[in-house]
Amino acid sequence: MPPRRRVRYDEDAAPHGRRAPSGMPVEEDGPYDESEGEDERGAEPRRRRAALNAVSAGRLGLRYIADLTSKDTEGVTSVEPVENGWLVDVEVVEDRRIPSTSDMLSIYECQVDDEGNLMSYRRTRTYRRGSGAYGGGL
Questions:
Q1: Residue 75, H or E segment
Q2: Contact call for residues 32 and 49 (beta carbons, < 8 A)
Q3: Of 50, 64, 77, 82, which one has the fewest beta carbons inside 10 Å?
Q4: Which of 12, 28, 42, 22 is nearest to 88 (CA)?
Q5: Residue 81: which region, alpha, beta or left (left: phi > 0; alpha: psi -120 to 50)?
Q6: Is 65 in contact with 73 (CB distance < 8 Å)?
Q7: Which residues make Cβ contacts (< 8 Å) with residue 105, sequence separation at least 6?
Q8: pLDDT tens by residue, 7-48
Q9: Torsion region of 42: left, alpha or beta (phi above 0 gives left; psi -120 to 50 gives alpha)
Q10: How far apart are CA 24 and CA 52, in angstroms?
Q11: Are 106 and 91 in contact (CB under 8 A)?
Q12: C-alpha–C-alpha distance, residues 45 and 89, integer Å
């Protein structure tokens, strides 16, 4: 099996090449592109940063976990807003076995702040694919 291609955070850039700090494309006329005005030193105006939504937080969490663990990810299992960002759970294949129903899977939890930066991550549980995330069978 060929190695999986890692996605860079700056790939798929917006046509104009601008990206938010979270790595997500920034639209030219988006609601977060308004200037906040000059500061008292006459410096260039700062731009407001786009707040993440659940979809973009889930995508970032999936990318972060794939990069940090270097393992195949199955997908995002939950996205939950928290005080300063998002809590994202990602299912990861820890060990592939034959038959695939006996693969070992894990759930990794990562916290992403409102700007898309990874704050923390940890593995919360490991289980066999056929047994379900919380034990027991079908």
A1: strand 73-82
A2: yes
A3: 82
A4: 22
A5: beta
A6: yes
A7: 74, 91, 92, 93, 94, 126, 127, 128, 129, 133
A8: 544 444 444 444 455 455 444 443 333 444 555 555 555 555
A9: left
A10: 9
A11: yes
A12: 37
| Single-letter amino acid, residue 41 | R
Scan for tokens 């919380």, then name that residue.
Answer: 134
- Alpha-carbon span 77 to 57, nearest angstrom: 12
How many degrees, rounded to 5, is the angle at CA 115 between CA 114 and CA 121?
75
pTM above 0.70, yes or no: no
Q: Provide the total of helices (H) and of strands (E) in the chain, helices listed first.
A: 1, 4
